[in-house]
Amino acid sequence: MAHSLQRVGIGTLLLCGIGAVLLGLGVLLLDIAPGLRWLLLLLVGVLWTGLCLWHWRRRVRAYIEQWLPGVLERLGRVSGGALAVRFSEAEFPEELRALAAELNRLTGAVEMQLSRVRTLERSHTELLGTLAHELRNPLFLLRGSVETALDSSDPAQREHLLQKSLQHIARMERLLEQLLELSRLESGTLPLRWRSIRLAPLCTELCNHFSLLAAQHEVTLHVEVPEELEVLADRDRLEQALANLLENAIKYNRPGGQVWLRAQPQEQYVLISVEDTGIGIPPEHQERVFERFYRVRERPVQGSGLGLAIVRHILQAHGARYELQSQPGVGTVVRFWLRR
Questions:
Q1: Which of 91, 154, 192, 282 has the fewest CB atoms within 10 Å of its CB?
Q2: Number of structural domains in the chain
């Protein structure tokens, strides 16, 4: 709307002023007694002022009624849940256009918060469903192994079944430990113990720890870290993140594959990367692999879906930038940057 309340008021004021001047001149020109002339002039002025105010009120009311119904209609739609509705500032008087901008800002903020709540609700539902599925499978297998062991009279078979039961129990323990760890990381209740860490001993120790798993998968591990290179981090959390990355790089590799754990200085940061020659991740999954319980179904080996989610939260707690690059059939590399 091009006009404003101020312009309506100015127009009415000018009209009233011109009319008052003309009426005043007419009264002054009347051939009557001076006292009566001034009394008549005062009476005419009061009546004319009242008439002008009434006229101004009508114009303002008509002006407001042009845009207020549309605004009320939009507000009704917003209150009904149509949060995508926005108010056009051009439809408001100039004096109230800041109100239109504020209404749009508040509506956008409510829409964003509601979207977050819906996303959290979906995530909560997915989490419960996935958790029930993850616990049901090992419990079902555990029950079958125990029942078979109780019915078996062969000591060797009973021992084998009990060993399998221990494996199922260990799987459930690992899943619950990862869930608790992820919960503490997401809630921010897991404080970081910052200190300067030499990377070479830590990386060598990790590769020695995973040497047996690498041998089982026929994968060769390589460490390329300068001896004196240091980063500022929580040693336990950094070790946990690197362990998760190395485990994935080994498990999703191919026989005869390679894994490199590298670190190199870059100004005030240190670039750390874990690269493999494994099966890779399809492009449509790469943006979501850091979500909890998200797994690429095409992979022959299925994990808990929590490892990379834990890595993401650890890196975010360190304020570290990270990236993933992968090509199916070629391999995957995860890079992140820590302060020196």
A1: 154
A2: 3
